[in-house]
Amino acid sequence: MRSMRLFLVLAFNALMLLEAQGFTDETDKQALLEFKSQVGERVILSSWNHSFPLCSWEGVTCGSKHKRVTRLDLGELQLGGVISPSIGNLSFLVWLNLSDNSFGGTIPQEMGNLFRLETLDMGSNFLEGGIPIGLYNCSRLYNLRLASNLLGGGISSEIGSLTKLVHLNFYENNLEGKLPASLGNLTSLQRLLLPQNNLEGEIPSELAKLTQIYSLHIYANNFSGVFPPAIYNLSSLKRLGISYNQFSGRLRPDFGILLPNLRNFIMGRNYLTGAIPTTLSNISTLGRLEMNDNSLTGSIPTFWKTPNLKSLLLGTNFLGSDSSGSLEFLTSLTNCTMLEMLGIGHNRLGGDLPISITNMSAKLIRLGLQNNHFSGRIPHGIGNLINLQKLILDQNMLSGPLPTSLGKLLDLRYLGLFSNRLSGEIPAFIGNFTMLETLDLSNNSFEGFVPASLGNCSHLLELLIGDNKLNGTLPLEIMNIQSLLRLDMSRNSLFGSLPEDVGRLKNLVTLSLENNKLSGQLPQTLGTCLSMGVLYLQGNLFDGAIPDIRGLVGVKEVDLSNNNLSGSIPEYLANFSKLEYLNLSFNNFEGRVPMDGIFQNTTILSIFGNNDLCGGIRGFHLKPCPPQAPQAETKHSSRLKKVVIGVSRKKNKQTNDPTPSTLEVFHERISYGDLRNATNGFSASNMVGSGSFGTVFKAFLPTENKIVAVKVLNLQRRGAMKSFMAECESLKDTRHRNLVKLLTACASIDFQGNEFRALIYEFMSNGSLDMWLHPEEVEEIRRPSRTLTLFERLNIAIDVASVLDYLHVHSHEPIAHCDLKPSNVLLDDDLTAHVSDFGLARLLLKFDQKSFFNQLSSAGVRGTIGYAAPEYGTGGHPSIHGDVYSFGVLLLEMFTGKRPTNELFGGNFTLHRYTKSALPERVLDIADESILHIGLRVGFPIAECLTLVLEMGLRCSEESPTNRLATSEAAKELISIRERFFKTRRTTRR
Ligand SMILES: *[C@@H]1O[C@H](CO)[C@@H](O)[C@H](O)[C@H]1NC(C)=O
Ligand SMILES: *[C@@H]1O[C@H](CO)[C@@H](O)[C@H](O)[C@H]1NC(C)=O
């Protein structure tokens, strides 16, 4: 009783004292009730009413003496509404947590009155507007967290008055502008987190004063400039994240000495150049080192002394030097017993895959070595890496069979081996990989049957085994994998029918079985694969009518060409609104061609080579249908069947993590800004070549996760962007395995207001034939590591001849290339040739004739004029005969090693004459030295072989257009030369 009275007296005195100052707990109560009135969900705050004492209200803590509200903890209470300005009246507040709610609206200025505030956490709400300047009056703030909101505007320089700040977290907002230099005032700062905003500019040098800082994250902004020099001063840094910005320049060689405490250094997706500082390997604390997607060069340092390294990601750079560079770093990684992730794909590393990789940490989850030049076999001990979930060895030169120990990797989710030289059978043990989601064995030399055990891989999303030498039938078991999204077995020698059970694959988006020997009728159940987007069955022996596929309304591409299908073309196809490509050519379809919907668009639809079709819109030039007899009788007469040379439709294979969305065909239009970003502002370091009609840049498109080549055209004609794009669209439809694929185009206005046009092509990792033929003229870093053998040259010549044959004879209308030369012949990973710039001549002729002729005759191309047919000089128009001439010159150059523009030649003494005068006796004198010594068996009749090839070159490069050989002849002859001298099949799958 006594103590109670005493308490009341004391309380009364305290109250008097506070009232005298004009503040009471009544003020706090009013402020909180006002706050509550603005909160959407009030049930939780039901204790906030007059019948409860203020200090026992939910989330409220009072000071022990004055009973004023000092802490308000309302985190994670599902509160909504807005934050009332009355909160600014809680003048004793030290600690305020409103995080993880759904507050919207702005942060009230009045919060700036909370001068005692030390911790303010309003993270994970929907707050918008700017950060009120008043907030920077709260000069005792120690911890300020506004992360994961929608805050915009800049970070004003007044932030420099928060000199007590230790933790500052503005992660994931829409903040923009530059960082104020006054951040350097915050010398107590230990954590500065600004990731995922739109901040830009250089990092102010004043940040060098933040010597207490151990965590600095600014990733995913638009910061630029060289790697911030201020950072070298922050020797206490443990975690540094600057990835996804536009930093450029080199790292200092003493990096590891200046920042000896780093644990995580994440700098992927920038434009940094130069070598990886070897001093990084002195940082014994290093746990994550991620420098992927930059332009780093040189070799990879060793990591003997970084036992804590968990993640090393260096992919998509220019590291290594093809076959010759050191792979000691791989061996050193055996000392990193914590290693979980290793990604060094998309570099220039080469040489036999060292066996030591099998001694790496058994903790390894992900191993990515794709798109390098690794050769040799997959080491036998690969099964030691027992926890591997992703093994990615795509696009190397690995050979031999799959080792049996691979069967131990039962956790595999992703097994990517495409585009190697692997052989033998597909092992049945893959069926034990029950977690497997992607199996990509395409483009190897696997043979034998498709194992039925694959049907046990019940999580499989992608089963990709096209471009091999597989035979046998399609196992029924595969039709049990209901998860399948993509099934690609194209270009093998599979036979038998397409099983009825294909209808069980309800999730299938892509079915590619083209160019096999499948036969019989197409199953009716095909129409129940309702997710189908791409259906490729061309180049088989299917017969009968098209089954009822009216359910496949989402389908985008259907190719049934080159089969023996018959019957009429279903009317309902006209209504497939998503359809972008329908090829029914070279079958026995008959009767009336529908006139509606997509059948009005001759660019989407291909129906030629069906003899008994009639009607249709005029563009198809079909005979009129007989009145009242819409369906002609079936006629199975023997019919000359043209063969369209293997139309290749390879999908994007460069992604590390193919998900269905990134595997979609590249349809997105692309903006100037995107291309500018992707090419580092069209910088010289991204430039990979310049040709007659423009400059080519290597570009990384983050949205597609894909490296592409961007050809920026020099065009003079203004306007007509729409027709330019339309023309490009039509170019996209001409496809051949030996053409560089045009992915998309861009017609736009650049940042200076000039018109800008670019073509975006597949990127070819092995550069141009020109580089391979004249390595001495190539800068060291891009120089091929070896010379091409006679056999490889012959294959390349055949590739080029077959694509010319296709363009000249087999495409809808004959297309002349007009600018064929070694720099326009690009080589992919397995040295298959792809002709680039095809269609450019047609495009330019149609679109900007003036530019075209100006550029052909300009000083810029005179250096390559030796490839242009003589009639071009006398005003002749581009023609297919001109291409044959260029091809002849190309052949001569490939096997003599001499350019037509070599200083040896002049006047009438041309490469043609030079070659002709030496044949046949002195053929070895004029042959390219480097082919005489490599890759040939003892006793190989080299003189004879070379003579035949060079004679082909001469016959193609005759002065008079009418005396030149046709490309189809040239292709045939070259193939027969290959067969005669190289009885073995090509080592790589063609
Ligand atoms: C930075 O700190 C200095 C001294 O502590 C102070 O005078 C100055 O006003 C501060 N700058 C800003 C922008 O707050
Ligand atoms: C590998 O690690 C061990 C243990 O941390 C260390 O003693 C050894 O020196 C390292 N090896 C090399 C070559 O540095």
Give a quick account of the main beta sheet: strands, pairing sense, barrel closure: 24 strands, mixed
Q: What proportion of the residues form beta strands (DSSP E)?
A: 15-25%
Radius of gyration: 34 Å
- Shape designation: globular
**CATH first level of the domain at 768-990: which class?**
Mainly Alpha
* SS field, number of helical segments: 18
Give the uncertain stretches in residue-range form. Answer: 1-22, 629-668, 858-863, 984-990
- Looking at the chains present, what oligomeric state does this protein adopt? single chain
Mean pLDDT: 85
**Tally of strands:** 50
CATH architecture of the domain at 768-990: Orthogonal Bundle
Query: What portion of residues is helical?
Result: 10-25%
Distance between the termini: 100 Å
CATH topology type of the domain at 768-990: Transferase(Phosphotransferase), domain 1
User: How would you classify the helix and strand content by structural class?
Assistant: alpha/beta
Membrane topology: Single-pass membrane protein; Single-pass type I membrane protein
Domain Protein kinase: 682-982
Protein name: non-specific serine/threonine protein kinase
Organism: Arabidopsis thaliana x Arabidopsis arenosa
